[in-house]
Predict the structure.
Amino acid sequence: MQHAVSKYCFLSSPVSASTRQPIKPLGQELCPFQGLQKRISLTVRHIDIVVSGTKKPRKHAFWGNIPSICTDPGTGSTHKYATMFQIHDWSIAVPVIDISTLKPVGEFGSRAWGEACAEGSIKILEAANLPDDLSWAFTEDYTHPPARLMEGGRTHAGYFIMVNNGKVTAGDGVPQECLSIPGFHVQIPWAAICNQSGAKYGSAGQRQRSADEQVLYAAIGKYLGRSDYFDLKGRDAKGNPSAMLSPAVWPSEIGRALGEGGEEGNGLHNIAATMQMPSPEFAELPVTELLVPDFAKMTDKQKKSFIKLCGITD
């Protein structure tokens, strides 16, 4: 549901009762939004804030959800006491997929899990009304997976998403046609990212997961006495081994669609994590809060087992 410019004037909590008299907060002015569930987010892309004592509006980029806007009219601004908001270009975004209806369907990298992720991706991207001339692709190829995940003649543990001239397809496997289209293409040992892929998080959690993974990889390198232990086929800009098979390309239309609602527990990552079943290899391993294996806390037996699971050879 898209809307153009709307104006809502109000006084927030007064600095002193003698100088300001509060009126209806923004949440009450936006009465059509009252009672909506938290998973439905109100997105405000631009806001002018008129602060008492100033002559010109101050412009701010702003994103917020319904609960925060309804309870705190000043959320997102640098001013505690705003006297008027002019809200531009706002929308209510209802997630394409209701994550509360999803259940675990398979292990990370399994056919069932990959096909479910692909199905969700198609629904999300088709609902985004992508430009007809847009082409983009995504592949995740998990190497050295457990044998049980390769039953049925599978050649790759992973899945793909492909947008070709605006048409969306997705499925199990890693087609060569998909790899030839610029986008996001990763090839990495299954065990290196399996367990933490089942963690649900927003942007802060993503940063923490990445930090935890860097600690894990550094600890493995220190234990082995070398840094090139993963058999990575990609190369970064400096020529160093990389899980990225080519430079990442994220068109804004794709990023917005797949990440929609991520801070509220939705988005493609959290959808995939919700559908992921635990893998037995990690049941007894020490892990961080974001479920990244904690190599430093492993016993020597666990370290050797985990290294083997990652496909690392001495």
User: Anything to note?
Assistant: The two ends are 57 Å apart (CA to CA). Residues 6-93 form one domain. The chain has two domains: 6-93, 99-309.
